[in-house]
């Protein structure tokens, strides 16, 4: 079996260790915006299905077609497939999983959260590789999981207790003699700082996966690459020119937040203090001003107790969020992150109610914010232009739709690649909108 370093060398990458970050991935040739730097199939993954989720996802490709069309494993009743191709590709692992799950008591079934299922799958896949039923390769073997950071000495006692309880549950489900409970608890800690939320092309979360080579990539709040998914495959794409010898960096968190909020999120989940070029400005005048724009109130009173909103009644949600928006426009900077979050919520509710004209107005309101806080090439502004374009087209403003869809394509072809079904669909929509716009133009003449 070729080792990881030579596997990476073939992909013009190298594994290095940096004193302040641990393992790191370096480029050994120049990469350019849109290029796939590395892609990986998950070592293990699970869709976001739970006993209460109304719509189930296929275990193979994570699609969520009509539940009636997804077929359910008749034995364990817990796995779903969109067709025979996915069922076949998952069979070796699911055969073992099914044996374990189908004999479970009802009360234990209820505790089968996606992370418990992910852990069960980790052990079952390791067994399949040990028994040589599934081959091991340089990029796909359990040694890579063993090498992941666990931060066991840095986590809180509460977390430790939680991982120990979850490990006991996994042990009681597997019932394997000699299994190491401490190692299972450590693997839960590894999941916390190495597993990735799998998203669809529109960045909606659909599952969780462990990609042990992609997990070598460190974080920056000013990343040169982006992690996207095609089904359950993970792809890291360059969003800037990455010269040979440079570290490949992605963002683990929402980069639009203020420095303090980003640092808090990184410390809590990933247990490190970021020193990227944006974070190293913490406390400087520009950074304080930026935080005030994003999160600050004009009023300095700290008496506000917060509030909770019901989100299922969209009409009610819109009217409440509009009251908040009115207040926020008085209190906050027009480019405040709070105001943007409120407007995003109004937009979401308007879309649910199919109030397209007003939805378009709100979509347009969020764009200056997106332009300001995200780099020129980032999936979120790309998707916002896409929504804008679709709404404009639907409402008959084809010329504006062409402009918005073109902007979406310019960004998303770099972040999502051009060969995915999502991008092909977007490119086709743009072509159709262009044809329609030129037809309208010629019929006006
Ligand atoms: C997904 S792993 C990345 C690979 C890791 N460096 C390793 O040695 O396996 C995430 C962990 O890497 C470290 N890390 C990632 N980005 C970092 C950064 N910008 N500065 C310091 N440590 C970082 C933290 O320990 C974090 O919990």
From TrEMBL:
Molecular function as annotated in GO: zinc ion binding
SUPFAM superfamilies associated with the record: SET domain, TPR-like
Cited PROSITE patterns: SET (PS50280), ZF_MYND_1 (PS01360), ZF_MYND_2 (PS50865)
Annotated ranges, domain SET: 11-253
Keywords from the named record: Metal-binding, Zinc, Zinc-finger
Cross-referenced SMART domains: SET
Start and end residues of each MYND-type domain: 58-98
InterPro entries: H3K4_H4K5_MeTrfase (IPR050869), SET_dom (IPR001214), SET_dom_sf (IPR046341), TPR-like_helical_dom_sf (IPR011990), Znf_MYND (IPR002893)
PANTHER family per the UniProt record, alphabetical: EG:BACR7C10.4 PROTEIN (PTHR12197:SF251), HISTONE-LYSINE N-METHYLTRANSFERASE SMYD (PTHR12197)
Protein's name in the database: MYND-type domain-containing protein
Protein's organism: Glycine max
Lineage: Eukaryota, Viridiplantae, Streptophyta, Embryophyta, Tracheophyta
């Amino acid at each position: 079996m070729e080792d990881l370093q030579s596997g990476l060398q073939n992909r013009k990458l190298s594994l290095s260790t940096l004193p302040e970050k641990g393992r790191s991935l370096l480029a050994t040739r120049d990469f350019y915006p849109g290029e796939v730097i590395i892609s990986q199939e998950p070592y293990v993954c699970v869709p976001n299905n739970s006993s209460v989720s109304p719509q189930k996802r296929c275990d193979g490709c994570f699609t969520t077609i009509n539940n009636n069309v997804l077929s359910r494993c008749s034995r364990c009743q817990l796995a779903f497939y969109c067709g025979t191709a996915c069922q076949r590709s998952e069979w070796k692992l699911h055969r073992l999983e099914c044996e374990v799950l189908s004999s479970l008591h009802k009360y234990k079934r209820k505790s089968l959260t996606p992370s418990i299922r992910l852990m069960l799958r980790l052990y079952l896949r390791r067994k399949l590789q040990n028994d040589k039923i599934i081959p091991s390769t340089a990029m796909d073997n359990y040694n890579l999981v063993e090498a992941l950071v666990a931060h066991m000495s840095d986590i809180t006692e509460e977390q430790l207790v939680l991982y120990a309880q979850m490990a006991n549950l996994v042990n009681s489900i597997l019932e394997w003699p000699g299994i190491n409970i401490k190692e299972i608890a450590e693997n839960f800690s590894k999941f916390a700082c190495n597993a990735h939320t799998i998203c669809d092309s529109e960045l909606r979360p659909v599952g969780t996966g462990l990609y042990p080579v992609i997990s070598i990539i460190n974080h920056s709040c000013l990343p040169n690459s982006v992690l996207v998914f095609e089904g359950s495959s993970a792809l890291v794409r360059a969003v800037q020119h990455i010269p040979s010898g440079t570290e490949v960096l992605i963002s683990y968190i929402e980069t639009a937040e203020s420095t303090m909020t980003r640092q808090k999120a990184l410390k809590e989940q990933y247990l490190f203090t970021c020193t990227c070029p944006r974070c190293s400005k913490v406390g400087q005048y520009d950074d304080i001003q930026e935080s005030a724009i994003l999160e600050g109130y004009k009023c300095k009173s700290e008496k506000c107790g917060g509030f909770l909103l019901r989100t299922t009644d969209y009409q009610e949600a819109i009217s409440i969020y509009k009251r908040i928006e009115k207040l926020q426009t008085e209190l906050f900077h027009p480019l405040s992150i709070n105001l943007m979050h409120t407007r995003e919520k109004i937009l979401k509710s308007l879309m649910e109610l199919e109030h397209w004209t007003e939805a378009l107005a709100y979509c347009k309101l969020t764009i200056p914010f997106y332009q300001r806080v995200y780099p020129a090439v980032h999936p979120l502004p790309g998707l916002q232009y896409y929504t804008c374009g679709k709404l404009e087209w639907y409402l008959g403003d084809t010329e504006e739709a062409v402009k918005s869809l073109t902007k979406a394509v310019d960004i998303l072809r770099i972040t999502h690649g051009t060969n995915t079904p999502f991008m092909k669909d977007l490119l086709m929509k743009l072509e159709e909108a262009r044809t329609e716009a030129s037809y309208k133009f010629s019929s006006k003449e």
